[in-house]
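Example 3.2
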Amino acid sequence: MNNMQNVIEYYDELYPSDESQKQFFTNLLSSYGIPSKFLRIGCGTGYLESFLAKEGVDVTGLDTNKEILERANLRRRFPNMAIRFFQMSTIEMTNFLGKGFYNVIACLNDKIIYIHDEALLKKFFVDCKLLLSDSGTLVLQLYNYNALKTESSIKLPNRESIRSKIMEQITKTQTEGFVINQYLENSAGKIIPLLQKQKVYPILPEKITEYALEANFSRVEFFEDYTKKPFTPESKTILCLIS
């Protein structure tokens, strides 16, 4: 079951782009000159992408959800903004996007775990390396899943706004590997199943490093958040810079 269309009304509230995130990407992209090239995998409604495009960044956003991309395209109201959105999965990226073109590629908000097959995850790192410029950076942001080394199930922190809430739980099964169940509580208080037993791969820091080095990246850095607070095994979230 996939009812993600129910999230669109609340998407910007539940997946906000705060000032620390904006400042992080502004600083990172400015190091590549003007115009820097930015690719967002799992762009959602495109709020961060529109902000960066207004700052003069050449922006590409990918998502697999048609309805969410329709909302993203509504943000393209300003003239001379270099921004485009495509309905595309990570498997298709290197077939349609320019190799060596992007200075920064970002996959945020745990979107990477939905590449639920280990072989496809390894391909993801290889493909990002192909799409990046020689000095380009891959940015990953996700929950720290270290607890799954010892626990068979974990409840993720709720994503909440004044009007809505997303609740998520990841469970290890005997036959399917890891699966996620996700629910939305909407403004009327109704609980709506979004994802039911959706396969995921809750990738750990050591696996990120392994796959990145196999893909010929040379440097992997871990932080806790967009302020670059040092990462520890107890950190709730991971911000990873791969170059």
